[in-house]
Amino acid sequence: MLRKLKTSALAISQIPPNCYENGQHNATRFCTTCRAPFCESCFSVVHCSKILSGHESVPVAVSQVTIAPPECQIHPDKHVKYVCKDETCQNESKLICEECTQHRGHIMGYYVSVANQIREKLQKTVALLQETEANLLQKMSNAQNCKRSFDKCEMKYLEKVSDIIEHFETQKDFAIQKFADFADYEAHKMDLEMISIEFDAKRMVRMRQELQNVLSSNVGLLEVEDLISKAERMCQLEKERKENFYSLSDYNVQNDMSSTPKLLRKISVDQSAEAIEMMMLGLGNI
Q1: Of 121, 138, 165, which one is at a domain's C-terminal end?
Q2: Cα pseudo-dihedral 87, 92, 97, 98, rounded to 10
Q3: CA angle at 213 for the pair 209 and 219, rounded to the nearest 5°
Q4: Are 231 and 211 in contact (CB under 8 A)?
Q5: CB 42 within 8 Å of CB 22
Q6: Residue 118 to residues 1, 163, 179, 260: CA-CA distances in angstroms?
Q7: In which region does residue 7 sit, left (phi positive, over 0), alpha (psi from -120 to 50) or beta (all else)?
Q8: Best label site of 122, 220, 222, 272, fewest CB within 10 Å?
Q9: Backbone dihedral region of 155: left (phi > 0), alpha (psi from -120 to 50 degrees) or beta?
Q10: Does 138 fall in a domain?
Q11: pLDDT tens digits for 97-115?
Q12: What is the pTM of this model?
């Protein structure tokens, strides 16, 4: 039926067309044989003769497409006037003229009205499809732009690469500065240790020279007991004092300097001797 509608469609009219016989009148009927619109009075006058009296007409609806109905399949000399709209209808053809009796008692609609409704739906559907096509084209354009942004030659990509390089350059400079600060701090600690060692060494030298003088002169031998005790205490304290300085290789330094370098686990000489002794005892028991 849609194919027939397309082939038989005439011009679209948004306002009532003028009467073919009298342009001052609005047409209310459309002669399907003359293919012309008429007002009621002019249609009656024009078709009063016996020759034209058999012409059929359909109403002209406001804001509807005026469509010339096709010929009736059962009565070829007549034009379709109605469309069967009965959902229970079992007849193959739904298009009928005034002489058709197969659809008697069925729900009917004017062919032009039904055709106009279908045409309106078609127009809306076509418009919807056009809008959807436009949206799809826009989506495709957006997708292409998104893909293009990942192209390794595109400015956005190159800018991000530059940002990454700058970020890690900054991190590198920051890590190097932190490492330099750590090295300066440890070097300063060693300076303080060296000052302390130098001070103690000078005390030892003075004490040794004083005792050597007594030893070489043999004068006051019986009066140096306190000096001897003091010297022994100085040596003992120095022996007991642990070294509090380490080299760079003693530290675990992270490349990114994300944390302060920590001392690696070191086994002292005493711990090593104890471990060796335990190992020997274990071997002796075998």
Answers
A1: 121
A2: -60
A3: 150
A4: yes
A5: yes
A6: 10, 60, 82, 80
A7: alpha
A8: 222
A9: alpha
A10: no
A11: 888 878 878 888 888 778 8
A12: 0.45
